[in-house]
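re the bet — no i am not wrong, look at it urself. input seq straight from the record:
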Amino acid sequence: MTASTTKRLNQPLWITALTLVASLEVVMAEPVNEIQTTLEDQTEVAVTIYNSNLALIKDQRQIRLPEGRVDLAFRDVSAHIKPQTALLRTPNGDQAPRVIEQNFDFDLLTPSALLEKYVGRDVGLISTHPTTGEQTEETATVLAANEGVVLKLSDRIETGHLQHLPYRIVYRDIPSNLRDRPTLVMRLDNATAEPQALELSYLTGGLSWQADYVGELNQDETQLDLTGWVTLENRSGTGYNNAKLQLVAGDVNRAPEPVALFKNIAERRTMDAAPPMQEETLFEYHLYSLAEPTNIADNQSKQVSLLAAPGATVRKELLIQGGAGVYQRALGDLAQTLDVSVFIEFTNDESSNLGLPLPAGTLRVYKRDSAGHAQFIGEDVIDHTPKNETVKVLLGQSFDITASRKQTDFNKRSGSGPWQYEYESAFEIVIHNAKPAATEVTVQEQLPGDWQILKESAPHQKGNARTAVWTLEIPAEGSTTLSYSARVRL
């Protein structure tokens, strides 16, 4: 231990503390240049959007920085940036400046924000004489700016709302922590004064996408002309010009979201045509890439083409589905009305001009009337559908095909304990067809526990462990009655 060290240790603690504070203040007060980079410096931007209000932005800019410590204000980042995910790198592999700290300035410059920053400071109040038009200015101190403003003048206190004050407020400067655009400020240790390409990548909210499909049935309802669109929503607080756009379809696991800092702003809708997307596998998901760069403006909804599949082979199905609860009790109703649901289904394969993994979305179906006008006939949500899988879409309920069920017999055979409860029930399902042509209808009845069909007027198939399936032909402007009895053991 040196003599100087011993002398320092023998000093009173308060002198040592003051020395440390003084040295800290010198470090904190050391000026650091701030260099701003704007969209004018941008050379390339890539946007990858996920299903759940999440996007990856890769923003490349050509920037010249001085050597040493410098604050780089990266303007026009997303207002919903997750700053903890930000990564500054050089796309060409050169050594990137070292990031010492970073601050996301999301407190944007507005009249109310500026007033709040001036609490405790002086402003000028300019008033205009109502008859002479002469303008005078007096100094006031802003005491508060919450739910209005409180001003201290030389001889009085005045309150009011900012938009109703009889003054024009004059500010002498703009506080450094107010920005006119969302800005990420990074304190860097930079090794070169030469121009360099820097890429800032980060995750952000405020960007989302969904798939929408439009299908048109032909007249005999055997083919579907299918078109797929991707609808993009940008509410991130900034635009992305000439962006390389990619979309990830699949359920990516995410940690719980923090409380949102910003409210959504009014939506502006547009529709743009674009070349179909290219698809590839990415991990356990699918990645869709737009062939050409596109503009994604802030507060915009736009559509780009996903696929076009004319003449996809479809099959229409009229389906009656019964519940399992009718087999364990005697029913009091003379008859129960049953819904007759209308489905179409097609296979996502190359023979149907498809074969592309389909992202989840809404499929809306149209059919032309006798005058050639397309009429909306129903919509349904489809799930992520891999290649060669079947898509089944519920369009609605049939108007001309109606059905009712009646219980004709019920007998409780036993009931002393689990798997000893045994019931026998008999039913009639009457299906009416008001159409001028015969129609095929499928009946699916769910039966609980251990079940057995004892008698039936038409043969059934076992759809699965709990479902009996009948396929019936209903004559034109006629009816068909399906009668059967079943034994269930629970």
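see?? The two ends are 88 Å apart (CA to CA). told u. also Helices lie at 3-9, 13-29, 111-117. so pay up
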